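Pipeline run #58 for the internal structure catalog. This entry was flagged by the ingest filter as a single-chain record with no existing model, so it goes straight to prediction. Upstream metadata was stripped on purpose; only the residue string is passed forward. Reviewer on rotation: M.T. Logging verbosity set to normal.
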Amino acid sequence: MKRIVPIVLRAFYFLITSLVVIAPALYNRYPLMYFDSGAYMEMAANLEPSFHRAFGYPLLIKWTGWMVSNWPLIFLQGIVLSYLLYKLLQAVLKRAGVKWEHSLAVLLLSFASAMPWYASQLMPDVWTLILVLTLALVLISERMSLARGIGYGLVLVAALLTHLSHIPLLLLILMTVFAVGWIGKWNRIHFSKAQWATAVLPLVTAFMLTCSFNAVHGLGFRLSLASNTFITANLGEMGILKFYLDEQCEHLETNLCQIKDDLPRETYGYLWDPEGPVQQHPEGWEGANEEYAPIVHDFLTQPRYVKWLIFASVKATVKQMFQVEIGSGLQYAYGVGTPPYWPMKSHFKQELNEYLTSVQNKGDALPLDFFRWINYLSLFLSIGIIIWAVLNRQLSTELAILLIVFLSAYLFNAAITGVLANVYERLQVRLLPTVQLLALLIAIRWNSLRAATSKT
């Protein structure tokens, strides 16, 4: 009995803190929805490959809520984030008892960052943050037991499978950490074989699972089924596709040449507009992806177009890094006739009324403007704290590793999404809470050290 009570209290504590993390969903009275949420729910029902979505998040929807409720996955997202914050605080402060600091961190991040708005959404974007926090925890953990390694590894695999951008993102972060430690010969960075295995094996596993899933369904052993389509659409938004087509249409067989003087200005017009080139393609996404392959090949191999792509990619990456407005897509109501409505009606009809009467579906009723300003203020304050800590050499080894991981994750996420998808705040703000989190960890550690010094 004595052993059970602490376990129950600990579980109750994480339950309460996880509810704080998903407070926007509770306020909304239903998980927050985005335009693409409907596609993930529909995919959860059939678990068939998609040309533009990973299968991991639909699998989580299906396995957690059994196609009855969307709430279990939202609760899972809150619990995982709360637990990761707890373990990060233990690793940084190097002590087991961190409940007061953890409670403070959960409250501040849930009030003054984008974290709860992503944790409360039925979208895979929160798993980008979970991926980065889990990797950071693996790299700063002093001991990596077999049980802990398996646990963190499973979280990493789940996160990697939820979005196609996560696999290259993790790979680039690991390469950066390795380069800083090896090329820079920084003795403060040293990882055990267990840590490297915990970080690398999930990467290989997720890659094999994704490619095998596509191969089993007769689509080939490949990671992405529509990379050429997305890149070509973004070339159009970058403004360089038009000039390429002017020069190459004599040698190309593509429907884009027929509309080269009236190309869509944004990726939506290429990919999702019912009258756009992809939706109107006689062979759909698969045909468009094959048709646009020569275009992508030229931009990756011909010096003239490589130069255009490099400049456009740098600009897109920088622009993406400054997309810091929270609440993207949440300002809309997704009522009858919208993409999320149909799978709710078909597969989650038990919660249809709950969904339709949510605060979000009343139209512009969520307090997004207030929390946007809070996010801006906390972001500027956090950047100031981080700069102060770097200039005054107040970073411990753990905090220095976190700075490298978080900064590289933010940069590479901007590059991957800005170049392979499009410049859009939803795709970047998902990692913005790492800024406030790092500043908070710096402040908590500094205060802890000051308190210890004053006692002695």
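catalog note: Residues 211 and 223 are 5 Å apart (CA to CA).
catalog note: The chain has a mean pLDDT of 92.
status: ready for reviewer M.T.
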